[in-house]
């Protein structure tokens, strides 16, 4: 190339029309020139002629960017308008006009700030709740259980919501501070005269432009994050809907069909990318929508949904284009999309059968109203009280398990071991009543029968009158424990079924 043209190769530039994100950003700009509104038209023309004569734009130039700041007082907007010219090595010039704006005042109404404050307080409340839950797991079960007991899918969604909210809040504060900086620079600029001190005036314009560029790019990032943040909130809605069987249809359907969809996605992606590569090879040099692999994949996605430009494809190659289009529509649209629908509908049928005659949302609302009315008039116990009692009972069962292990090891000699609470009732076990008067009269005895669910049992005492008479005791019914182990008797560990039936005991208001 150097011998033939007498010049070295300048490298790749903008061979295709640039995407919006790289088009907005100019890294390491060179040969910056300023044109001021106060200058005469003839002065600007002379400067342009000098730039042309001195080779300001040469064969190494890849991009020329013209930036024009505008303040719209009617709508309260700071705007920066880019007129970009992108040069390819083949001589084509791509042109883009990119207007970027930011509000001069973000909170024009007081309630706007109130809404943002409430939202940010909710994020902080979620952060506090999750940290307290992590602390509770860590204190009671150790850090090893965090991965098994805490980090489930919904907790990950909660943390994504928290992190996303903090990122949005940080970007919003940076944008707010950037707006204040731009406003201060603009106000200072209005108090200066370009005729009296042109150097200071030009320096202040440079400061204003730099602050405005930072501001509009922060706004772009903020809008990008805000566009994805609602997707996380959708998962939060699914978490809330999971509490109602009818509303949980979508979530449960995704869970049921998850494995099938993942395996299908592998096949789908392979076939999809095959058609994208095929389109790139066939039309990449002629059609802009196929010039890169990503653009070709995007076009295949539109074709799969039935949106395509047959006229453009036909102009490139009618026969090959028709065959490619027919194969793509047949496989991707008629086959693959319908397979997705079949998998989802099959899972939906399973979920619907599992749900059965679950309460509808209006029925649950009526039931909640009835419960509220019953609690108000003292006919029912609040669910919060029941939940607290069950948690206390569960903690007590767990604590009794540890106590039972210590007692079995002889760590707490002489401590009472209550049948049904600290040990399982077993036929042949030596026990005695917890009531001292009954124990003095009947003495110890042997368990002869154990009732259903281990809530009652019958004992034959040593001093029964007549001999062999059985006495019945509660060992968990209504949370009463009327027997204890005799000294030297080995306690038996409670089973999960026994603990379950204990949690079903009637809880009445005190």
Automatic annotation (TrEMBL):
GO terms for cellular component: membrane. It is a multi-pass membrane protein. Keywords: Membrane, Transmembrane, Transmembrane helix. It comes from Noctiluca scintillans (Sea sparkle). Residues 152-351 form the Polycystin cation channel PKD1/PKD2 domain. Signal peptide: none annotated. The keyword Transmembrane helix applies. The chain crosses the membrane at residues 215-238, 261-284, 322-344. The lineage of its organism: Eukaryota, Sar, Alveolata, Dinophyceae, Noctilucales. Pfam families: PKD_channel. This is Polycystin cation channel PKD1/PKD2 domain-containing protein. It is found in: Membrane.
